[in-house]
């Protein structure tokens, strides 16, 4: 047994001779593991054991695994890497340069933890254990013990394999609003390609007769990635992403559903049953509540170190959203979704984290720099922030009602709300395709039925006194307001919400950097400008404000939180900012007005002359 294990380890390490070093965004600690420097240091007295070996026996898709290990030469920088697939050599994974021999190691660990994390005496005893949470990611797992820290890792021992009972199972359903108000889409992930099974959804009004609907299937390959690490050490097969369209829904009604697959032998594989509430009819006068935030990311409940605490607060945000789920109709996560930055295993971990939310209410996303930006890929910005993903995982993992998901702008109607969602990673300036979309979205809404007009985008196109924007001198993205502020003013946008700056800030109603109202909390009648809000404190590391506080900035908070909009009726809206730490309201305002107030002219909102004049 020991000789066979040695042989396996020799095979694993023999492929590590010539590894292409890749660079990723500094916020992704998996990139801090010097995989290209891994050397072989197997010690027969060292071991790693993992139990149980079969997970998910009761249908669950996450489970704690006990990892026990021992090293005769323990040190404080020893660490445990979790690899999936379990055979993590690169013999079947050639890199970009096919002339490199031996082939590249192309699988970074999906997570890691230091050996002394829960064992303070590890360096004395040489033994330790960890409880690590695994989620169903369509493949088996193994655990490897390394010495030498992250910068000079030496492979010491590898564990037995661990796997979920059905690694192909349908998992992590996520709802989204469709292109029509009476449509809901449900997307899920599985290991079943169309050659193995047919994806289906069973759904219906709660308590009624269920029906079956088919689903479409998408996936993507390594060659769809634009660069490293997504194309090399960060690559992991995404499985199959299925989307079904549930149509002709009754407004504000409760539905149940479950996702599944019909195998070629006729057998059916089902998820557990979920439920959602359909959208209100556009203009329907009912209580309607929507949550908005950006830049959340993900973190591990077991304390695993894949992010070095950069996004630990995302767990608090997730927890508060779950607690408030019964009072939430839809969620808008406006960019910088999970910060995978080219390490694709993190997408599975993110959709597992948000499953209680996204399986219950529509979870709408916008495109951010960490999803899209890559040089020469068509993004407006030429940074490396996507880690080579260039938008492909986000555009495939989540449905949005865009005409073309590669152009991630769209409109969504939810009752009395119209949301115009921009894609700041593509050009929005006057004369562009997106500018025309934004104007059409703002101009086409019937404000008698949908009085609350909301503009959403990732980067701050309006106003922010975050230090990096203040240093630009523009207090926003350069050229951000130049073209768009005349549209916001002309079509009387009520609120614009952004992410990207990791904090919270609210302005007065403002136009051309001048407050159009001196009220701060109870707005009555015409706003005469747009209230701009930065809600980028979803969970990623916070961003400092400038020392200078402009006169349009009413409220700033260097903390994590999210925004909630509540429309009571066509005349009354409540805005709340809640902290992720306690879920309490720390800033709020109300808008009270009638339709005639929307019609009223203000600066640059009506033609300069009319027939009457």
TrEMBL record:
Residues 529-588 form the Purple acid phosphatase C-terminal domain. Its main location: secreted. Its cofactor is Zn(2+); Fe cation. Its EC number is 3.1.3.2. GO terms for molecular function: acid phosphatase activity; metal ion binding. The keyword Metal-binding applies. Homodimer. This is Purple acid phosphatase. It comes from Arabidopsis arenosa (Sand rock-cress).
């Amino acid at each position: 047994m020991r000789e066979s294990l040695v042989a396996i380890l020799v095979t694993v390490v023999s492929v590590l001779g010539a590894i292409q070093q890749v660079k990723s965004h500094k916020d992704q600690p998996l990139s801090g593991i010097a995989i290209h420097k891994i050397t072989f240091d197997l010690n027969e007295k060292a071991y790693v054991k993992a139990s149980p070996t079969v997970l998910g026996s009761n249908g669950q898709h996450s489970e704690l695994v006990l990892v026990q290990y021992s090293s005769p030469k323990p040190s404080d920088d020893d660490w445990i890497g979790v690899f999936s697939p379990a055979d993590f050599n690169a013999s079947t994974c050639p890199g970009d340069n096919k002339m490199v021999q031996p082939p590249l190691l192309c699988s970074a660990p999906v997570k890691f933890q230091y050996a002394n994390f829960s064992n303070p005496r590890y360096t004395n005893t040489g033994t330790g254990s960890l409880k690590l949470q695994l989620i169903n990611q369509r493949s088996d797992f193994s655990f490897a013990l390394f010495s030498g820290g992250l910068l000079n890792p030496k492979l010491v021992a590898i564990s037995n394999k661990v796997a979920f009972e059905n690694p192909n199972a349908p998992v992590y359903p996520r709802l989204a609003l469709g292109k029509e108000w009476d449509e809901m889409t449900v997307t899920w992930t599985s290991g079943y390609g169309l050659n193995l099974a047919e994806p289906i959804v069973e759904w219906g009004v709660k308590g009624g007769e269920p029906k079956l609907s088919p689903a479409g299937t998408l996936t993507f390959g390594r060659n769809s990635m634009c660069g490293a690490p997504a194309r090399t050490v960060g690559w992991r097969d995404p499985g199959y992403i299925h989307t079904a369209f549930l149509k002709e829904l009754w407004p504000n009604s409760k539905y149940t559903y479950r996702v599944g697959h019909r195998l070629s032998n006729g057998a059916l594989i089902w998820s557990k049953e979920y439920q959602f509430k359909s959208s209100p009819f556009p203009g329907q006068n009912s209580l309607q509540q929507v949550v908005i935030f950006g830049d959340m990311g993900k973190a591990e409940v077991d304390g695993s170190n894949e992010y070095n605490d950069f996004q630990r607060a995302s767990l608090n945000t997730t927890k508060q959203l779950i607690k408030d789920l019964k009072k939430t109709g839809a969620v808008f996560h406006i960019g910088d979704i999970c910060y995978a930055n080219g390490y694709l295993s993190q997408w599975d971990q993110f959709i597992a984290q948000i499953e209680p939310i996204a399986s219950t209410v529509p979870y709408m996303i916008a495109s951010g720099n960490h999803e899209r930006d890559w040089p020469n890929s068509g993004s407006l910005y030429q940074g490396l922030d996507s880690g080579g993903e260039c938008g492909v995982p986000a555009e495939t993992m989540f449905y949005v009602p865009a005409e073309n998901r590669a152009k991630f702008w769209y409109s969504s109607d939810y009752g009395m709300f119209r949301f115009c969602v921009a894609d700041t990673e593509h050009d929005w300036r006057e004369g562009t395709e997106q500018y025309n979309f934004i104007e059409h979205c703002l101009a086409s809404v019937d404000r008698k039925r949908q009085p609350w007009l909301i503009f959403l985008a990732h980067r701050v196109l309006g106003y922010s006194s975050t230090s990096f924007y203040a240093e630009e001198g523009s207090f926003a993205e350069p050229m951000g307001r130049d073209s768009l502020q005349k549209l916001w003013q002309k079509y009387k946008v009520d609120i614009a919400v952004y992410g990207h700056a990791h904090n919270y800030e609210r302005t007065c109603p403002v136009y051309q950097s001048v407050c159009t109202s001196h009220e701060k909390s109870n707005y009555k009648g015409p706003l005469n400008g747009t209230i701009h809000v930065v809600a980028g404190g979803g969970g990623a590391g916070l961003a400092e404000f400038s020392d200078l506080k402009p006169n349009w900035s009413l409220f700033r908070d260097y903390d994590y939180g999210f925004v909630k909009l509540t429309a009571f009726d066509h005349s009354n809206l409540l805005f709340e900012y809640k902290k992720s730490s306690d879920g309490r309201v720390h800033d709020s305002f109300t808008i009270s007005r009638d339709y005639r107030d929307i019609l009223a002219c203000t600066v640059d909102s009506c033609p300069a002359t009319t027939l009457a004049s």
